[in-house]
Amino acid sequence: MITSTTTATTTTATTTTLGLKIVSVRTDNSPYNVSNVPSSIFMIDSTTGAVSHVLPGDLITARRTAGAAGVATSVMHAKHDNAPLTCLIYGAGIQGEEHARVMIAVRPEITKVVIVNRSRPRLDKLTTLLKQEAQYSKVEFVGLLESEEDLIDGFLSSADVVCCCVSRISGEESGRKPLFDGRKLKKGCHVNSIGSFTPDTREVDRHVLERAGGRIVIDDEGARSVGDFAIEGWNEMKLLGEVINGAGEGLGEISFYKGVGVGWMDVVAGGVIVDELKKGGGGNVGVVRLD
Asked: Would you list the DSSP string of 71-126?
């Protein structure tokens, strides 16, 4: 059972990668300027057995998670005549940031990104950062506090893509409360949800599930037990991989993707980064090399 004091590990061994991911869950790390779900990835030299690199798990996890949501969005959200699109994102943390970047990448028709957050400082920091980047010069970024319900509802009803990136803490009543009323979503909207990952936490309500119907996909079998489904006793869903490989979608007014994260994939992603570093690439991800 994952609680607000959980620390867990995932060990991954493939023919090309050996590593360990350590991840914790905490209620509120904002006073320490640390994610509520901090993680680190330790890559291990398969020959010597020694740790060779320490990677920033938060960033790698956020980019891989957002990337998976981007794939789901590409597959499930239908575009119409290159019309301008609006993306609504709940959460201004690292997951919210990476989802904003990925959604614009897979849907370049997005001209407005609305970000909703509980606190003003983190919200302003993210919207300012994105506004300053030249690649987003044609995108309007709007920041709203979660208390501004009327304004949020207005954007919710017109959103083409909604991303739920709010960490939900097990054992707290707030973790069981959906972020929005699914009846307010317009037909054709696609919803990504990655913030809840325990049987008693959720981000979406039954209305989202009922309206999505046969157009619900998950990243891993473990997502079946998450509160978004478990609280409502919902069992109808497909794996994203199945849909990509031709299983087909069912009927639904909207579409819904639920990602709970797959730790071994983050370690494999870490292995790719280490390989790129050895080639002289790898980008700027804050890697510490131990040798």
From this structure: HHHHHHPPP-TT--EEEEEE--SHHHHHHHHHHHHH-TTEEEEEEEESSHHHHHHH
Q: For residue 237, give both structure tokens.
A: 């869903």
Cα three-residue angle 13-14-19, rounded to 5 degrees: 40
Closest C-alpha to 216, from 61, 103, 75: 75
Which residue, chain included where needed, has tokens 């990677």? 55
Q: Which position has the token pair 């707030």?
A: 174
- Token pair 């009803």: residue: 157
* DSSP one-letter code for 194: -
100-136: per-residue pLDDT in tens?
A: 999 999 999 999 999 999 999 999 999 999 999 999 9
On the question of pLDDT at 291 being above 70, the answer is no
* pLDDT (0 to 100) of residue 2: 56
